[in-house]
Specification:
alpha+beta, 13-stranded mixed β-sheet, two-stranded antiparallel sheet, 12 helices, globular
């Protein structure tokens, strides 16, 4: 490979640990980088912990130079993603030292793997599913990332572009102050008695599995026309339910019903990154105690809305058009009582005009931009 760079397939737990740690070393050079929890990454990047592997072909590689791990990349083909039928594969998990030879070696390997499997186009970064982390941070390095959002080294965009990649799509993260109400005209409509047949309710933890299935049904319907959309499977729904048990505050999770049918939802989750920023990816020996105290006693000040949607059959109706603002107001009021100061709405496609109008009308502002790149093979 170029410049004496060796590309090594990741094998076993030891290889996966190296894969995770090399990205942490590269990221640590960014002032606002937050190291992920090693155990969480270990589960998310294995078939045992992530149902994504049930419907995707995945390969990880490390770049080694002068005896050191200097970079990493993944390649994957998601057979549930409709674009796979058009020959689209993905690269992801990209992190490397600022060395053009390392990037050339990594991308040459990932592209060859995808091409050998019939792919004609490669897009990314996608880490690993389009329902997980998507895009490379190209603007917004001045603030720390929210959980499940990337914070990539500043040199990476130019290095990817140097391999012949161009922008396919930009994705935005919006920020919103919990202290700020919706604009007056919208707030007056939202605070009136709900239209006939419209009911807002909080999520019921005792029925969490059923509630998550309802949420997933709305999500798969509401997002089905979005670029890059992949439907969530039953196994992924169950994994989501299991993971949410640790984070979910039912007071910050709302469903909207119209004539007795689940029509929309919005969930605000605590920003775990706020609680783990100084743990260096480790929970032992004292990290667990710090994490639990910060989440349960001190309480987080920031959160993220990773999941929100309204069924398409309702979205164009008068009652359905009001639902997003009713949900935002309900969640914001609850978050204010819990001591939250700011939350993020993410991620939102640049051409998702309906959602962007809702964010703009509600006073939210774009503060981070992530980019998905594309290249013909």
């Amino acid at each position: 490979m170029p410049g004496g760079v060796s590309i090594v397939p990741v094998e076993g737990k030891a290889g996966l640990d190296r894969f995770i740690r090399v990205a942490m070393r590269v990221g640590a050079r960014e002032p606002n980088y937050v190291a992920p929890l090693m155990f969480e990454r270990g589960e998310a990047l294995t078939a045992k912990g992530n149902p994504f592997f049930e419907h995707a072909d995945v390969q990880f590689w490390l770049a080694v130079k002068d005896g050191r791990d200097v970079g990493r990349i993944s390649a994957q083909i998601d057979h549930l993603n409709p674009t796979a039928n058009d020959g689209v594969g993905h690269f992801g998990m990209i992190a490397a030292e600022d060395d053009p030879e390392v990037f050339a070696a990594l991308f040459a390997t990932a592209e060859a793997w995808l091409k050998d499997r019939g792919c004609k186009i490669v897009q990314g970064p996608v880490n690993l599913s389009t329902n997980e982390e998507v895009g490379l941070l190209v603007d917004g390095h001045d603030t720390p990332p929210m959980f499940m959002m990337g914070h990539d080294a500043r040199h990476i965009p130019a290095r990817i572009e140097g391999q012949g990649y161009a922008k396919a799509k930009d994705i935005f993260a919006y920020t919103c102050s919990v202290a700020d109400d919706l604009p007056g005209p919208i707030l007056r409509r939202v605070r009136k008695p709900a239209p006939d047949g419209v009911v807002l309710r909080t999520l019921e933890m005792k029925r969490l599995d059923e509630e998550v299935r309802t949420l997933t049904g709305i999500l798969n319907d509401a997002w089905s026309n979005n670029w890059g959309f992949t439907p969530t499977t039953a196994a992924e729904t169950q994994a989501l339910a299991n993971n949410m048990k640790l984070l979910l505050d039912p007071r910050l999770a709302y469903f909207a019903e119209i004539d007795g049918e689940a029509a929309g939802f919005m969930i605000l989750l605590p920003n775990i990154n706020e609680a783990i920023a100084d743990l260096g990816g480790k929970l032992f020996p004292f990290g667990w105690a710090k994490l639990l105290w910060r989440l349960k006693v001190k309480g987080p000040k920031t959160g993220r809305v990773p999941l929100m949607g309204v069924k398409r059959k309702f979205a164009g109706t008068m009652r359905g058009q009001l639902l997003p603002f009713q949900l935002i107001d309900a969640v914001a009021q609850a978050a204010r009582k819990q001591g939250y100061e700011r939350y993020e709405l993410s991620w939102i496609l640049e051409d998702n005009t309906a959602m962007r109008r809702i964010c703009d009308a509600g006073g939210a502002k774009v503060y981070k931009t992530y980019r998905v790149y594309e290249k013909a093979l």
